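Board notes (copied after class):
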Amino acid sequence: MNTEATEKVHVLIIGSGPAGYTAAIYAARANMKPVLYQGIQPGGQLTITTEVENYPGYPDGIQGPEMMEHFEKQAARMGADIRYGLATKVDFSVHPFKVWIDEEKLVEADSVIISTGASAKWLGLPSEERLNGYGVSACAVCDGFFFKGKEVAIVGAGDTAAEEALYLSKLCTTVHMLIRKDKMRASKVMQQRVLQTPNIKMYWNSDTDEILGEKKVEAVRIRNNQSGEVSTIPVSAFFVAIGHQPNSDIFKPFINMDETGYILTEPGTTKTNIEGVFASGDVQDKNYRQAVTAAGSGCMAALDAERFLSAKGLV
């Protein structure tokens, strides 16, 4: 490693969804000269979302990618230094913190804001990828409204799947719930609610064979994994609720996380177990996972970082 190539910054923001860009807006306005690396998916999960109708300030809704462009432009206008690049390794045992970008460039940062998000887990079907945004979704709260009064399918067996099925049941005529085994993983109370909801139809021991439709979801073909029987259910949407994977692997040697990899923060703050390292957005939020809550926590992270740097006399 060529030490001459080392760059020193006050605030390094890793990740570029609503949390990262909002942190950049606040940090730049506070004259902290933030540097933001966008990561593998600039703009985060919203770039694979079509219409966003539930973000305040857009009365007519907005396309996810366009909204993230607005966030990025605003952060840049405030003076944030926004760059392409992926954080591939960190060392939080020393201060200033060391972060390697694309395995070669070393950045030393007085404070770090982690906003790397979480990625939805998918079934891995080609049709799922092809129809993503055209009826295939990993967020019922985000996209359920577009299928009001229609029949939909949801796959998953945990608490999130149960919650999303119940949410959809209030909007849709029928929710076809596909469960791979003969029982659910969800808590007893959630299972009870699902089973007692008349318009949620359960399909036990069922694997998703294919999502059907040329330009939008029209049906789902399922296979009973015991009898081998194949059936087709006409639906307008297919929701995948088999969990999310927080993008937190590179921080594991230093940062406290729960058993699934979500970063643990002090309640009411974005502070991690390492003083000067903050986490915002979906990488530390497995409950809400909304653009507006991610943006809110990005604001909190920038304010927490500013207070930390001020207290240390670094800004």
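Comment from the instructor: The longest strand covers residues 105-114. Residues 122-240 form a domain with the FAD/NAD(P)-binding domain fold (CATH 3.50.50.60).
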